[in-house]
């Protein structure tokens, strides 16, 4: 059994590893500490049995990473493990395809039990949170569009959200600026946007409160 863990806090990754080992003693664990690392990890392990995903890693603008990973790897169940504990956030994660939402404040025993239930095919939420759709039709449509982006297009989108210009993104990815412009054209077409600012406004709709991407200069 192969379990992926994407979280930027080493201490909490260690706690998750203990919880996973408790629930699934023979599991092989693979880790990433950023969304960029998550994309590499998912590509290298497309048939993983489970992904444990933090919503607040570097590069993670709210639910964007969740919906993209669910679109690219629908066969991999995703459990969000987050410090966010609002019921609406939990329900939104489930609406966007997560198989569970575990608060980081949960005990090791609760995390282990939750993972076991998800691996059994169930959807897990804290007992005091009732499941229910919270996505508007517009947000559900946007999530579907983000899910259609290729991994490289999604990387470009992440860097755009960090405020990088085309030439900076090209340098980071080791490709030409013309290639980035082609990716931007494809991103705008898929998201139904006419410029970079509209792209950021759209993807910002899936950001957690207080986590809206920054606008680029120019």
From TrEMBL:
<dbReference type="InterPro" id="IPR011006">
    <property type="entry name" value="CheY-like_superfamily"/>
</dbReference>
<dbReference type="GO" id="GO:0003677">
    <property type="term" value="F:DNA binding"/>
</dbReference>
<keyword id="KW-0238">DNA-binding</keyword>
<dbReference type="InterPro" id="IPR051015">
    <property type="entry name" value="EvgA-like"/>
</dbReference>
<feature type="domain" description="HTH luxR-type">
    <location>
        <begin position="142"/>
        <end position="207"/>
    </location>
</feature>
<dbReference type="InterPro" id="IPR000792">
    <property type="entry name" value="Tscrpt_reg_LuxR_C"/>
</dbReference>
<dbReference type="GO" id="GO:0000160">
    <property type="term" value="P:phosphorelay signal transduction system"/>
</dbReference>
<dbReference type="GO" id="GO:0006355">
    <property type="term" value="P:regulation of DNA-templated transcription"/>
</dbReference>
<dbReference type="Pfam" id="PF00196">
    <property type="entry name" value="GerE"/>
</dbReference>
<dbReference type="InterPro" id="IPR001789">
    <property type="entry name" value="Sig_transdc_resp-reg_receiver"/>
</dbReference>
<feature type="modified residue" description="4-aspartylphosphate">
    <location>
        <position position="54"/>
    </location>
</feature>
<dbReference type="InterPro" id="IPR016032">
    <property type="entry name" value="Sig_transdc_resp-reg_C-effctor"/>
</dbReference>
<feature type="domain" description="Response regulatory">
    <location>
        <begin position="2"/>
        <end position="119"/>
    </location>
</feature>
<dbReference type="Pfam" id="PF00072">
    <property type="entry name" value="Response_reg"/>
</dbReference>
<keyword id="KW-0597">Phosphoprotein</keyword>
<dbReference type="InterPro" id="IPR058245">
    <property type="entry name" value="NreC/VraR/RcsB-like_REC"/>
</dbReference>
<protein>
    <submittedName>
        <fullName>LuxR family two component transcriptional regulator</fullName>
    </submittedName>
</protein>
């Amino acid at each position: 059994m192969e379990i992926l863990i994407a979280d930027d806090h080493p201490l909490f990754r260690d706690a998750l590893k203990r919880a996973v080992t408790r629930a699934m003693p023979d599991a092989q664990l693979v880790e990433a500490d950023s969304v960029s690392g998550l994309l590499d990890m998912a590509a290298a392990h497309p048939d993983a049995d489970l992904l444990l995903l933090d919503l607040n890693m570097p590069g993670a603008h709210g639910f964007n990473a969740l919906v993209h990973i669910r679109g690219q790897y629908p066969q991999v169940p995703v459990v969000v493990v987050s410090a966010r504990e609002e019921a609406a956030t939990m329900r939104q994660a489930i609406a966007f395809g997560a198989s569970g939402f575990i608060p980081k404040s949960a005990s090791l025993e609760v995390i282990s039990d939750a993972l076991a239930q998800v691996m059994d095919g169930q959807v897990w939420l804290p007992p005091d949170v009732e499941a229910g759709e919270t996505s508007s039709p517009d947000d559900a449509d946007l999530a579907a569009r983000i899910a259609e982006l290729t991994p490289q297009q999604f990387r470009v989108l992440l860097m755009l959200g960090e405020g990088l210009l085309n030439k900076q993104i090209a340098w980071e990815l080791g490709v030409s600026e013309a290639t980035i412009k082609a990716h931007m054209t494809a991103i705008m077409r898929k998201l139904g946007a006419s410029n970079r600012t509209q792209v950021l406004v759209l993807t910002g709709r899936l950001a957690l409160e207080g986590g809206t991407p920054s606008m680029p200069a120019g």
